[in-house]
Amino acid sequence: MEMSDLRVALFSGNYNYVRDGANQALNRLVDFLLRQGACVRVYSPKVANPAFPPTGDLVGLPNLPVPGRGEYRFSLGFSAEAKADLERFAPNILHIASPDVAGHRALTWARKRGLPVLTSVHTRFETYPRYYNLGFMEPWVEAILRRFYRRCDALVAPSESMVQVLREQGMGSDISIWSRGVDRTIFDPSRRDPEWRRAHGIADGDVAVGFLGRLVMEKGLDVFGATLEELKRRGVAHKVLVVGEGPARAFFEQTVPDAVFTGFQGGADLGRAVASMDLLLNPSITETFGNVTLEAMASGIPVVAARATGSTSLVVHGITGMLVEPGDIPAFADAVAAYCADPSLRSTHGAAGETRSRDYSWDAINATVARTYLRLIAQRQPAPSAQHAQAAH
For 217-270, what is each residue's pLDDT tens digit? Predict the structure, then answer.
């Protein structure tokens, strides 16, 4: 079987209605598959005004807003129309990107028909409750995820560190890496713009500590704010540049009141904003890869990140950035202060990160997923001897 023979039904909890690293990776994958001649059909909640146009054919699923996080939608499974569409499409493999209601229903649908199922892990769902004072739910969420993932034929995760976590949690045995790439036409050191910095009140001699990503609590906004407060207490001169938008913006504005908030940035504007930082502070522990970390590295700036899944596979401690134990405010402040005090250290580590980022090519990365599809389909097909025996009967 060739890639052009693939008929992939992709199920996502958020394909394009809110922009994030996970759904942008899925859209890039679909683009790659379509360019190889494969057929792809995407099933996901839809909204009237999505963040960006979908790549490929998108079929809407019934959904409701997530309580307390209305920008996200919670799928309610299949509608009769979506199920009929899936039957007509007749996929030879299912790819499930979210363990939601539709994902569970799609998995059951595939197992009844003997179709292989690949699931991709995009975030540490089991860690989310702790950011909403519901930490007691983590074992329960992990158990639900384990039951779901074990029913799939294989899993892919964005980093070796995340693969190791999934194995330790007993989520499955066939787990491989679907890494992430970076768009070098957007993220590059040459995008740095001193005039843009000055327009935002950041002088040439200022050190801009950057935050990049959606403004949601699970990105470690509290740790970021506490680290900046510790820097102020120590008298470490710095500026704060926040690039992104989200429902926790009001909280973050109160936490870092002196920060420059650019709001959402896209395309060349995003590349300019990231390259115009002096370092990225990424305290999140919910990432499975850390797209923002790779984007900062490609932009030639060092990264201070939590020693957690994703970041540990990207940041080489003491070479491309600094890794800090999650939640260790004094240690985060130490790392940021070291960069604030030493321009040559920022330059050396930023250049090393930019060199490392060149290893991440989207087409090469997405080809590994397509090859996994083909392997799973081949594993479901009977061996030649069995086919001959059936023919003889």
Answer: 889 999 999 999 999 999 999 999 999 999 999 999 999 999 999 999 989 999
When pLDDT is cut at 50, 70 and 90, the band that residue 129 belongs to is very low
CATH number at residue 217: 3.40.50.2000
Do residues 177 and 163 make contact, with C-beta atoms less than 8 angstroms apart? yes
Nearest by Cα to 97 from 42, 166, 161? 42
Domain that holds residue 78: 3-181+361-392
Report the predicted TM-score, pTM, of the whole model to 2 decimal places: 0.69
Residue 241 three-state SS = strand
Q: How far apart are CA 299 and CA 191, in angstroms?
A: 8
User: Are both 111 and 31 inside the same structural domain?
Assistant: yes
Q: Are residue 370 and residue 352 in the same domain, yes or no? A: no
List Cα–Cα distances, 233 to 225, 237, 326, in angstroms. Answer: 12, 10, 21
- C-alpha to C-alpha distance for 287 and 179, rounded to whole angstroms: 13
Structure token digits, residue 238: 């710095």
